[in-house]
Design brief:
The chain has 3 helices and no strands. The longest helix has 25 residues. It starts with a helix and ends with a helix.
């Protein structure tokens, strides 16, 4: 059985970091620091998003694909 706290915290992390990155970028998209921070939060959001599916699926094929995508997101996190 999948632990509720684990996948819920990953989903919450994905959602909140996505919103935070978009909000910071929308304040001043011309500044390099805002674009860099948005890219950073998008990488975290991407990683957390696939962590949710990796931890909740019962299919080994879906889990394997999600694990690969999670690693891509982890590589993008500086």
């Amino acid at each position: 059985m999948v632990l509720f706290n684990f996948w819920f915290s990953a989903a919450l992390t994905s959602f909140t970091t996505l919103i935070l990155g978009v909000l910071v970028l929308s304040k001043n998209p011309g500044r390099q620091i805002n674009r860099t921070f948005c890219a950073y939060t998008l990488a975290i959001s991407f990683w957390s998003f696939f962590l949710v599916f990796h931890s909740t699926t019962t299919s080994t094929n879906v889990s394997f694909v999600c694990a690969k995508l999670m690693h891509i997101g982890a590589i993008l996190i500086p």
